Amino acid sequence: MRRLLFSALIAAIIATICITACKRTSNNTVSTAITKSNFPVSVGTIFINKCATAGCHDASSAQNADGLLLDSWEHLFNGGYDGASVVPYAVLYSPMLYFINTDSTNGIPIAEPTMPISTTTSKMPYLTKAEFDTISNWIARGAPDVNGNIAFSSNPATRQKIYLTQSGCNEVAVIDAKTKLVMRYIAVGSGTNEAQHDVTVSSDGRYAYVSFYIGNIVQKIDCIADTVVATCDMTPAFPPTGDGSWGILTLSPDNSTLMVSGFQQRSCVIAINTATMAVNLDLSIYGGGNYTTQYPYMHGLANNATFDTFYACIEYGNEILKWWYETGVPHFKVVTLNSLPATNASSITPPLTPDPHQIIMSPDYSKYFVTCENSAEVRVLSTANDQLLDSIPVGALPQEMAISASQNYLFVACMEDSTNTNSGSLGSVYVIDINTYAVVKKIYGYFYQPHDIAVDAQDGLLFISSTNISPGGPPPHHVVGCAGRPGWYTVYDLNTLQPADANQYTVLVNPYAISNRF
Question: What's the pTM value of the predicted model, to 2 decimals?
Answer without folding.
Answer: 0.92
